[in-house]
Specification:
With 272 residues, the protein is α/β, with parallel strands linked by helices. It has a single domain, classed as NAD(P)-binding Rossmann-like Domain (Rossmann fold, 3-Layer(aba) Sandwich). Helices cover 53% and strands 14% of the residues. The strands form two sheets. The protein has a seven-stranded parallel sheet, sandwiched between helices. Strands 7-8 form a two-stranded parallel ribbon.
């Protein structure tokens, strides 16, 4: 049995991973931001934590609790995140900051706060990225940029944490059957405005928000794949799983950038 802490467990792949690790016999510390979600996690038998991943005081308290109650942390899964959809300039600096605070800054903040506990156990950090960090699409620029940053940070952390016996695994999901697309669509609808220069292309924005759910892979299957990778004696540096997780990076690597941009612009209604 290993001690696993997972952020963003209220629903989706976070909850699916928490269930998979618990069923396999691991001790799961599952975090969520909203009190009622924490109550549901506690009722399901997890060590439930109310945690805002950008709250430094709360992270310090969590680190202290782990120090006092345990002998360290075996696995940290940085999963908390969301997908901001819409034109980059419509979201502006504020939208980009919000996206990076949750998807990127929290990876550094949580890992830094729990570094000592991970070091004690020669632990593993699992960062949930996305194939969107490899294949950039229009109307998801902030999200793609945040996941590209997670990819770069994962590579840097893998090298910097190695002297302390801490390993890093980046996971790049494809389309997974969760509420992600609905949440992304709701966020996009909130952003779309008749005053936007991209108003005539609003159906392309909606299409991009829904694209992440094209023939999605079950969240339970994704969670099992992550569990199997984590449980390996030598976890891989990168795991890609879910519909499109292999094909889309291959497309980005093999198709000339100019042609690829034309394809994506046509796909999302930008050929005007």
């Amino acid at each position: 049995m290993r001690r696993v802490l997972i952020t963003g467990c209220s629903s989706g792949i976070g909850r699916a991973m928490a269930d998979a690790f618990k069923v396999s016999g691991h001790e799961v510390w599952a975090s969520a931001r909203k009190p009622h979600d924490v109550e549901h996690l506690a009722a399901a038998g997890f060590i439930a934590l109310q945690l805002d991943v950008n709250d430094q005081a709360a992270l310090a308290q969590l680190a202290e609790r782990l120090s006092q109650e345990t002998d360290g942390l075996d696995v940290l899964i940085n999963n908390a995140g969301y997908g901001a959809m819409g034109p980059v300039l419509d979201g502006g600096v504020e939208g980009l900051q919000q996206q990076f605070e949750t998807n990127v800054f929290s990876v550094v903040g949580v890992t830094r706060a729990l570094f000592a506990q991970l070091r004690r156990k020669h632990g593993l950090v699992v960062n949930i990225g996305s194939v969107s960090g490899v294949l950039v699409t229009p109307f998801a620029g902030a999200y793609c940029a945040s996941k590209a940053a997670v990819h770069a940070l994962s590579d840097a952390l893998r090298m910097e944490l190695a002297p302390f016996g801490i390993r890093v695994l980046e996971v790049q999901p494809g389309a997974i059957n969760t509420q992600f697309a609905k949440n992304a669509s709701d966020q996009a609808e909130h952003l779309i405005s008749e005053n936007s220069p991209w108003w005539p292309m609003r159906e392309g924005i909606r299409a991009r928000a829904k694209a992440s759910q094209d023939n999605p892979t079950p969240a339970t299957a994704f969670a099992t794949a992550v569990l199997n990778a984590v449980d390996r004696p030598k976890p891989p540096h990168l795991l890609r799983y879910g519909n499109g997780s292999r094909a889309l990076p291959l497309l980005a690597a093999l198709v000339p950038s100019g042609l690829l941009q034309k394809i994506l612009m046509k796909r999302f209604g930008l050929n005007r």
